[in-house]
Design brief:
Distance between the termini: 31 Å
Mean pLDDT: 91
Strand order of the largest sheet: 1-2
Helix content: 25-40%
Number of helices: 3
């Protein structure tokens, strides 16, 4: 099964990623290269991954979500 890489526009990327979370817990996770963001409820994990990679030019290994 081949995976098709979905490319999103920069406008869509910025609508998916709304703002970073800066709490004590999220700040402690930064030392392990784990970052927390508030994202759109309409987005899924793959859209979040692509948005982060496009905005910050990094390789995302894993995305965890919580409602």
């Amino acid at each position: 099964m081949s995976r098709i890489k979905k490319i999103i526009t920069s406008e869509r990327a910025f609508s998916v990623i709304q703002k970073p979370i800066s709490t004590e817990k999220s700040t402690n996770l930064n030392q392990f290269n784990q970052y927390s963001f508030i994202v759109s409820k309409k987005s899924n994990s793959s859209e979040i991954k692509e948005a982060i990679q496009q905005i910050f030019k990094v390789k995302v290994v894993k995305v965890n979500t919580s409602i």
